[in-house]
Specification:
Elements (H helix, E strand, L loop, with lengths): L1 E5 L11 E9 L4 H19 L9 H6 L9 H17 L3 E9 L7 H18 L16 E3 L3 H11 L4 E3 L9 E3 L10 E3 L5 H17 L3 H5 L25 E3 L1
Parallel strand pairs: 1-4, 3-8, 4-7
Antiparallel strand pairs: 1-2, 2-3, 5-6
Helix pairs in contact: 1-3, 4-5
């Protein structure tokens, strides 16, 4: 599971209302062919848009602070984002889902809440064999995160293997908690620099487009970018939530 974030976890004087974690999940048996497809796609962007393979796709800068990418027209930079979403949606064995936390009137640990929710969805979907693509008799999963808050994330995952209290569903139980330890997620999270990971750059696109649904900037809304996430219907893991059909767990 490749993970990227959008927004920050602050609840006081934060510039963002939402904190978002977006995940791209690939089975190890399809990792190589997915990467090969992505490399060919990046070559296509190089040949048609002038985006070099060594240049990182980072959507916030791509739209508003392009730096040296100013040489690419803004409409083409927007089209790069759209084409990235469409590439994700065309992958036969790829899965995406997200966690979105509205930080308004909250005083709990946003980081822990978001990551615990994401990891439990990852754990349960592996256990129930609900991810698209191949599966082994007894699958396990690893987390590959963008390089941020590594120590805190590592401690959380280690804790969840031993003690992980989850509130009971009110429609089944009156109250109380259960200790649901993770079993399918192995190892400590692996931290990656997105500069050197094409897949994490695609995850940045995913997180950015999910953000536009909730807190769109003027340009993206004007160009319809606030609806790009709807183009992911083929690959969204819809069973992670019953509240929508977009694979977005809203808290």
């Amino acid at each position: 599971m490749y993970v990227d974030e959008s927004g920050d976890v602050g609840v006081n004087n934060s510039p963002t209302r939402y904190f978002i974690l977006s995940a791209i999940v690939i089975h190890e048996l399809r990792w190589k062919q997915t990467l090969e497809s992505l490399v060919e796609f990046r070559k296509f962007l190089r040949d048609t848009k002038g985006l070099k393979l060594r240049e990182e796709i980072h959507c916030t800068e791509l739209i508003n602070k392009p730096g040296k990418l100013i040489r690419i027209k803004r409409n083409d930079r927007l089209d790069i984002i759209k084409k990235c979403i469409d590439w994700l949606n065309l992958q036969p064995d790829l899965n995406v889902f997200s966690v979105v936390i509205d930080k308004n009137n909250r005083n709990d640990d946003i980081f822990e809440l978001a990551w615990n929710t994401l990891i439990m969805r990852f754990e349960n979907t592996i256990s129930n064999k609900n991810f698209r693509g191949p599966s082994n008799t007894d699958d396990r999963g690893m987390i590959l995160s963008d390089n941020t808050e590594g120590t805190k994330l590592r401690r959380l995952v280690r804790k969840m293997r031993h003690y992980n209290t989850i509130p009971n569903k009110t429609e089944i139980y009156n109250s109380g908690y259960r200790n649901i330890k993770i079993n399918s997620v192995i190892e400590n999270p692996v931290l990656r620099d997105s500069q050197y990971s094409f897949l994490h750059q695609m995850n940045d696109v995913l997180a950015y487009c999910i953000k536009q649904k909730y807190q769109s900037n003027t340009y993206m809304k004007k160009k319809g970018g606030d609806k790009f996430y709807k183009r992911l219907d083929n690959v969204t893991v819809k069973m992670v939530t019953s509240k929508n059909n977009y694979g977005i767990v809203e808290i």
